Amino acid sequence: MKNTGKFIGFGAVALIAVFAIVFIGVSLTSNSKPVKVTDKNKLEILNKLYSDIDVTKEKTVKGSIDLNPANVASELPSINKFEVPVKNTTNDYVEIFSSTEKSGTGVDGWINKVADDFNQTNVTVDGKQVSVKIRNIASGTATDFIKSKKYIPDGFTPSNELWGEMTKAGGVKTEIISNRMVGNVPGILLKNSKYNEIKKKYGKIDAKTVIKAMANNELTMGYTDPYASSTGLNLLISILHTFDAGNLLGNKAVSGFEKFQNNVPFTALTTLQMRDAAKSGTLDGFVMEYQTFSQAPDLKANYTFTPFGVRHDSPLYALGNISSEKKQILQKFSDFSKQAKYQDLGSKYGFNHESNYKSEYSRVDGATLSSAQALWKEKKDLQKPISAVFVADTSGSMGGAPLNQLKKSLLQSQKYLGRQNSIGLVSYANDVSINLPIGKYTLEQQSKFVGAVERLEASGGTATYDGIIVAIRMLQDQMKKNPNTRPIIFVLTDGETNGGHSLDEVKGLIKAYKMPVYTIGYNANLKDLEKVSSINEAASINADTDDVIYKIKNLFNVQL
């Protein structure tokens, strides 16, 4: 037994020694320590990290371009992707699309409370008990469903009247039931110090003053996508109205918009992205609805709210050729919501404030609104065109459906890339391939992009940060040729990194080069990806196979 004990003791010591050697080896070879990057050493560090990567330059092959206009209906996900917080309780009912600030949770759930009570009150039409079904869906997305006729509900209550005008112009019968269900206004939030500075110079603060100060490069402001955001669309029309109230699409209005847009650092995909940029000091101001502003003590303490544009009073519309019975249900629901108890609840949730504010401009027809969106898309990056590199994960885990969906989403979404921009494509697994060098997005480059995407194949590990390093190097070289370009990186992946360089090695480089990195996860754990995107106020999107095309289309539409 003594000899056995000695043998066990020796084995334990040997095992400990082995673990110690492994631990020391890992400690000495680990690349996980943060790398300090400055403007002076960033190129040196970039080149050093790049030299560690096995980079292959693929032969470019042209693919066939689909020149047909984008089909919005085919890009939209199933309507079942959008939550129904209130279900109908009877066979006779109406379905209502509701904007998210009133059909969400907590203080964002005003209409849900009204609808729940309505459904329990035994309301009748023609002797039959009726109810409502509420679907939570952003106003811009709802408008896409309705205009494309992929799904038309019985009723629609967007944030503001602009979307109702657009559904009408889209050929869908749109009849007003109520001009206001619950009151709200959009506003420009300026840091208190910047607000006082602008007020001192101009003598007053209103939307026109702020817009002109922005055009004169006296402040830096961000706003949200006018294709998707009620506040963003409202601001776009306010800008055009400021410079020419009589002709929103005339040369004077367009010239004013270009001056304004030239000083916009970026258009945000979400309000959260704008808030993060404001916290980092990138922005002097941004836009937000009062209802959201009222629920954020940190914003109320540090920003001054200035209303602008048309009011966001949540009008209610009947859509399509619905029956008289359904119109009566919508009318009764609207009347029900106007009871004092529900309007008081709205006030408690942040609605019904700024009641004295009147809309700055009169009704704008849907055709003009659509033309204004197209103008925004065409003109927003003329002063500083974008150079973008797409970084695609082609590791083994992407094999089959994930890679097929990635390829499909890139091929369909590339229709939204502006011709004034330049793009390139990188793919990665264990190593990195440059599938398409950066080039102006001409028809030829578009054809090469399609060909490169179609040839992507999956195998190997996931060296995500190696792919990002190669993209940074490509963009660095591009900025040498054209210092006026604005660099952006888009990373498309399904999982966590398991090879190559680490986040700690790369994050200082991303920050030093000020390159926003937008990350799109395919059913992925996005913790590290969110960290990457937050470095330079970009956004991180978690998408599944059903909605990834629509989400990427929206992202490209905003950024490219």
From TrEMBL:
Domain VWFA: start-end pairs: 387-560
InterPro entries: CLCR (IPR051266), VWF_A (IPR002035), vWFA_dom_sf (IPR036465)
Source lineage: Bacteria, Bacillati, Bacillota, Bacilli, Bacillales
TM region(s), chain numbering: 7-28
Keywords assigned by UniProt, alphabetized: Membrane, Transmembrane, Transmembrane helix
Name of the protein described by the UniProt record: VWA domain-containing protein
Xref: Gene3D superfamilies: von Willebrand factor, type A domain (3.40.50.410)
Pfam families reported for this sequence: VWA
Natural source organism: Sporolactobacillus shoreicorticis
